Amino acid sequence: MKKKVIVAMSGGVDSSTTAALLREQGYDVSGITMQLWDYADEETGCCSLSDVFDARQAANQIGIKHAVINYKEDFQNYVVSDFIDKYYNGLTPNPCIMCNEYMKFNFLLNKALDLGADYLATGHYAKISQDERGKYFLEKGVDKFKDQSYFLFSLKQKELSRLMFPLGGFSKSQVREISQGFELTVSSKKESQDVCFIAKDYRTFIEKNFKERKPKIGNIKSVDGEILGRHSGIQNFTIGQRKKLGVTNNKPLYVVSINYKNGDVLVGDDTDLYSSDLIATNLNWSINPEELASNKLKAKIRYRSPEALAKINFLEDKVSVHFDQPQRAITPGQAIVFYDDNKVVGGGWIDEVRE
Hints:
- The protein is α/β, with parallel strands linked by helices.
- It contains seven helices and 17 strands.
- The strands form three sheets. The protein has a six-stranded antiparallel barrel with strand order 12-15-14-13-16-17. Strands 3-2-1-4-7 form a five-stranded parallel beta sheet, sandwiched between helices.
């Protein structure tokens, strides 16, 4: 009997090619598209109505059933509200990870299983492996530039055992070629960029959605404590930011830290952005930390940052991390993900940066 796979189809080339590949491999395939956000007439972004149309058209071309499911309320509660809350509290959120954790691999995965699917498949560039004990591991995709394992660190055994990432062994250019071979109309479609529900500037979006909240205002200070000006809310800043600071100087200034308690935003030189130590919380490990041959691992502090060797000190419900080489713009609210070669062995959320 054919294994039943439901593919999360976003209307892009990756998820459409995923569905076509699985159908070709003999699986019983159907597609589901999540409707997550209502766009204004002048706005565009992934998960828009045009993307829903593209997903349906791709499903028709492949010859599979397709359904649209409304998750707008859940998306608002779990992703958009978190995004706003973190900026309000002086943090920099990562909504893509939250969307993966809650929307795709909680709500949608459970929906797929309820519909009788054996697996949920997505177009992520990552791989899933299994060791001799039957334990599942998340691994990097072979395309180093497109590898999305960073965004998937929160996956646990329960989810990994029911997921498929068919594109993990391909490069993006290969996926384009495969989609052209299937004659999919989305084969030349451009990739979506940035945060999917923000078509323009995130500051404008937050201002519109703050509602009754009052922004945390305060001083813009130099790292030496000199007051350089005032700002209208810490939600307008992120670590490493250079533009739109609201102050002028004869040399470039960067946001070095944001203090929610007093509203201070510290700015300094590029050299002031480097730190060697952080605290991470809300951890997820795919291995028992005691099984590590060493307490040193490679870690990424953001999606596009290179991996860096770090010493891990395991505490009760958090870890302290010390990098061999100082890292630029470590940002509270972002994820830190730990790797052992190609395997994701753990990850968590950056809570605090230490000197």
